[in-house]
Write a structure and sequence with these properties.
11 helices, 5-stranded parallel sheet, globular, 9-stranded antiparallel sheet, about 20% strand, 14 strands, Jelly Rolls, Rossmann fold, 3 domains
Length: about 500
C-alpha cells in the first residue's frame, strides 16, 4: 500500500509541474546574467561577466572622484582669474544678449576682415573697451560715426548702434539735424515754419559769414517760428524707439527765444533760450516719458541756430550717425575750432569712426593725386585727435565702386591707390584702419551686389541698399567683437 501511495506522489502531473518550475528557475537565472552583461557593456564597455557588480561600483566611484577633482581645478582657475581681475580693479561684464557671431575671435577671422593698427593703436582700442565695460547707470559714452553719403539715412550706423546698445546699454538714435534732408531708418521726421538748413560740406551758402557749424558741420536757422516733429520709425531698430530725454543744442540766438517740447506721454514744457552771440554753444535737456511716442519741438525767436537734437537715454552708449554728402573727410579744419571743441568735449567720446574716401575716387587720376589726398586726410585726422585726445580713432576705408560708364572696368582705377594712402597715413597717426573694400570681397564686388537677389547695392554701383548696409554693419560689428573677445582673454589671462 505504501508503495502504491509513493507512486501516486510522483505521478505524471507532478513530474510536469517539477519540470516547469525547474525551467522557470533556469530561465530567470539566465535573464539576470544577460541583464548584468548588457549593463556592463553599455556602461563600461566590459566583456567579463565576473565580479560585474564590484567593477561597476569601482568605476562609478572613479568617475565621481575625477569629476570632483576636475571641478576643484576649474574652481581654482576661476578663483585665480577673479583675483587677477580684481587686482586690475576691472570686473568684466558678461551680458545676456549676444549676436550669433559673438563667439568669433581674432585668430579665426579672415585677414581681410581684421582691423589694422600698431600696438599703440590697439591699446587705444582696449581703452575704449575698458570704458564700455565700465558703463553704469550713472555714466554715458559716445561714439561718433562721421562719413559721406554711404552712411546717410542711418545706414550701417543703425546696425552697429542696435547691436552695441543691446550689449552695453543705452537707447535712442543719438544726434539728428533739425531739418533731415534724407529719410532715416531710425526716426520719421518733419519740419514746418520759417526754417533753413546750412552745411559746411557739399553745396555751401555764401551768405553765412561764420564757421560755427557745430559737431554735425551743419545747423538750422529759425527766423521767427519753427516746429520739428519726430517719432520712432515703425520699421526701425527697437533700441531706437525709446527716448528718455532730448538734448537740444543751440548756437547763436541774438535775441533769445523760447523752446516748447511736448509728446503723446510727455507733458508740455516751455523753457527760455538765453540770448547768445555767434560762437556760443549751449544745450537744453528735456526729460521725456521714456516710452515710444511722438515728440514735438517748437521754437520761437529771431535767427536761432539749432546745431542738433539728441534723442536717447540718460546713460549707456550713444552712437551718432553724422553723414556729410559729397564730403571727402577734409571739412573738419574749416570749422571754428573753439566752437567745434566746446561742442564735442561736452560729451565723453569713446570712439570716432571716419568713413571717407569714396568721393575722391572719380577725381583722382594718378598716384600723385592719391598721395595728396592722403596728406590732406592725415592733417584732418591729426587735427581731430587734438580736439578729442582721449578718444579711439578708427578709419573705415572706401568700399568697392563700379564704373557705370565703362563696363570693361570692374572698379575705379585709382581706388586702390586711395586705399593704400589712407591706410598708410592712418597707421602713421596711431589710429586703426578697417578695409571695407577687402571685407566686402574686393574688386567687382559692388557690381555683384547690385545684381544679387535681394539687391545689396544700388544701380549706381556706389551706394549700398539698406540690406547691403546691414551686412556691412554686421561685418564691422563682428570685427569689433572679435577684438573685444581677444581683449577679454588677455585681461583675464594676465
Amino acid at each position: 500500500m505504501m508503495k502504491v501511495k509513493n507512486n501516486q506522489l510522483h505521478g505524471p502531473r507532478h513530474t510536469v509541474l517539477f519540470l516547469i518550475l525547474l525551467l522557470g528557475a533556469l530561465y530567470h537565472t539566465t535573464l539576470i546574467e544577460l541583464f548584468s552583461v548588457k549593463n556592463e557593456v553599455d556602461t563600461f564597455e566590459l566583456t567579463e561577466k565576473t565580479d560585474s557588480i564590484i567593477l561597476k561600483t569601482i568605476a562609478a566611484t572613479t568617475v565621481k572622484t575625477d569629476s570632483l577633482e576636475k571641478k576643484k581645478e576649474i574652481e581654482t582657475e576661476a578663483t585665480i582669474k577673479r583675483e587677477k581681475t580684481q587686482d586690475r580693479t576691472l570686473d568684466l561684464l558678461h551680458n545676456l544678449w549676444h549676436p550669433t557671431y559673438d563667439t568669433c575671435s581674432v585668430t579665426n577671422m579672415a585677414k581681410e576682415k581684421r582691423i589694422s593698427g600698431s600696438k599703440t593703436a590697439k591699446k587705444h582700442l582696449w581703452r575704449f573697451f575698458e570704458k564700455l565695460n565700465g558703463l553704469s547707470t550713472e555714466s554715458q559714452l559716445h561714439v561718433l560715426h562721421f562719413g559721406d553719403s554711404q552712411i546717410e539715412g542711418d545706414r550701417i550706423t543703425g546696425r552697429i548702434r542696435s547691436s552695441w546698445q543691446k550689449t552695453w546699454g543705452g537707447s535712442g538714435p543719438g544726434l539728428i539735424p533739425a531739418i533731415q534732408p534724407v529719410p532715416a531708418l531710425s526716426v520719421r521726421q518733419k519740419h514746418e515754419g520759417n526754417m533753413k538748413r546750412y552745411t559746411k560740406f557739399g553745396k555751401r551758402d555764401t551768405t553765412v559769414t561764420h564757421t560755427c557749424f557745430g559737431g554735425m558741420a551743419s545747423f538750422t536757422t529759425v527766423l521767427d517760428h519753427g516746429k520739428v516733429t519726430v517719432k520712432p520709425h515703425p520699421s526701425g531698430f527697437r533700441k531706437n524707439q525709446v527716448w528718455e530725454q532730448a538734448e537740444v543744442l543751440i548756437g547763436a540766438a541774438p535775441l533769445g527765444g523760447k523752446l516748447t517740447v511736448s509728446g503723446e506721454f510727455t507733458d508740455s514744457i516751455t523753457v527760455d533760450i538765453a540770448p547768445s552771440s555767434t560762437g556760443h554753444h549751449s544745450s537744453i535737456v528735456i526729460e521725456l516719458a521714456g516710452i515710444k511716442e511722438e515728440v514735438v519741438f517748437e521754437f520761437e525767436g529771431h535767427e536761432i541756430e539749432i546745431t542738433g537734437i539728441q534723442l536717447g537715454s540718460r546713460n549707456g552708449l550713444a552712437v551718432h550717425n553724422i553723414p556729410m554728402r559729397s564730403s571727402s573727410g577734409t571739412v573738419f579744419k574749416s570749422l571754428n575750432k573753439n566752437h567745434f571743441k566746446k561742442y564735442l568735449q561736452n560729451w565723453d567720446v569713446g570712439m570716432v569712426i571716419l568713413q571717407y574716401g569714396g568721393n575722391t575716387a572719380p577725381y583722382v587720376k594718378d598716384e600723385l593725386s592719391a598721395m595728396r589726398y592722403g596728406k590732406r586726410f592725415q592733417s584732418q585726422l591729426k587735427y581731430l585727435k587734438t580736439i578729442l585726445p582721449e578718444a579711439t580713432f578708427l578709419v573705415i576705408g572706401p568700399s568697392d565702386m563700379g564704373v557705370t560708364n565703362d563696363s570693361s572696368l570692374l572698379t575705379y582705377p585709382m581706388l586702390g591707390a586711395i586705399r593704400i594712402e589712407m591706410k598708410k597715413v592712418t597707421l602713421l597717426e596711431e589710429a586703426l584702419y578697417w578695409d571695407l573694400f577687402e571685407a566686402m570681397g574686393g574688386p567687382g564686388t559692388m557690381e555683384i551686389w547690385a545684381e544679387s537677389t535681394p539687391r545689396l547695392a544700388s544701380p549706381d554701383l556706389v551706394h549700398f541698399t539698406p540690406k547691403g548696409a546691414k551686412i556691412i554693419g554686421e561685418l564691422f560689428d563682428q570685427t569689433i567683437r572679435a577684438e573685444h573677445r581677444f581683449w577679454e582673454q588677455e585681461i583675464v589671462g594676465e
